[in-house]
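# nightly structure sweep
# worker-07 picked up a monomer target from the shared queue
# config: single-sequence mode, recycle default, output format = structure tokens
# input follows
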Amino acid sequence: MAEFLEGTELADGWRVVSRVQRNPTATGGNFSIGYIVERSVGRAITRAFLKVLNLRTALSAADPLREIERLTTAFNFERDTLTFCKNERLRRVATIIEDGQYTPPNSQIPIFYIIVELADGDIREQLAQVNRLNMAWTFRTLHHITTALQQLHTHGIAHQDLKPSNVLIFGVVGAKVSDLGCADSRGKTSPRGHLTVAGDFSYAPPELLYNEVSQDWCIRRQGCDLYLLGSLVVFFFTGGCSLTASILSHLHGDHRPGRWPHDYRSVLPYVRDAFEGALETIALSIPPEVRSHVITTIRCLCDPDPRLRGDQIGGHGSQFNLERIISRFDVLATRAQHGLLAQ
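# output follows
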């Protein structure tokens, strides 16, 4: 029944308008179905995104009960994490509006859902609409994304699946990160916390592709998030290039994941050379007036050795603290807005 909710009236005046086709790049699992919903209060109409838990897929699993347990655990984790972010006022994380359940007519089995604020689109759609990169918008959006990661990290949450489709644009409000289904919470059990790569393999940092898993949560999870952030920087300036794919393309076949027979430390020099080769290629797509700033930022965020990522200058505090990067993007956005980048 989760597949046929168009026209349904939910609690608190929400009406299901239309179904949203699943993004083929989504990596949080196939446990949900999306809809657009709306609610009228006086003359004002609020539209939002409805995410419905879909247990039908579990029925065809080899162990349906175990699969139902897995799906409900993942759904509850995302709901609870979004609620936590809302209560802690993490303004750069897409906001959950409410959650609830609906029992269809002639059924005794309820359908569970969450309702989240509706975006205008993601950054891929925004970039597709422009012929020339808007530098002020680009750096301001990166400032918002980095702020979102800093907010999550401050509360012991690593996103783990930061990619273009999970960065949403909300008009004048700007960018927010979404889809916390792959997130990991420090000191807590997360549905995907046991996985080496919790998110999309095509964006994963190289060490994880070689099954190099640090026992230090900050290096393993926050270090991964920093790499994903740097990969987003690459995406903005190249029009869609994957940093991971670029690194792999610069590696000799024998040095690639799945073929290298030794540990990551022994292949790291080759990966570093490939990383530098990728940066040389990426630099050609970056406007000269900001090339040095952007390449320095990518190198800082995406060092092939996760132990060396982040702010190595301060000498105190966590190297994964993103305040310096936030400040850098803020300054660049302001300078771009006033036409001062070339100075």
